[in-house]
Amino acid sequence: MTYYIYYILAVCCFVGELFTMEFSLTCLGIGAVGAGIVSWLGFGTWWQVGTFAVIACTCWLGIRPFLLRFVDKFTKHINTPAEDVIGQEAVVETAIDPAQGTGRVKVQGESWKATAEKPIAAGTSCIVEKLDGVTLTVRVK
Hints:
45% helix, single chain, 141 residues, alpha+beta
């Protein structure tokens, strides 16, 4: 009469999957359903555990990669506001001197620490090439 425990575990796994979307708990839930069926049929504990392990591992190795690829097709990368400055035009506020590690630029109304390959004077227009932490790498426009 322990089959209902497996079904409760399976439902908990399926509900938990709604919050993760990585299909790990789904594999465990499907394994729990299989173990519940074996328990309902009257097989012993080792059969139940073996069925759970085989079904969960099969799902993990066989089904999960396909599900992840399917979901990844419909997911798009969303840039953070910090990533949006890449490719934007900037104006040097404080002269950039890569040797001393000084310099600031203004991009879209915000002031950022900046660096470049060679020194750039204040007031020069630049293009943001990359973002490294909170430091922008710029080049003269």
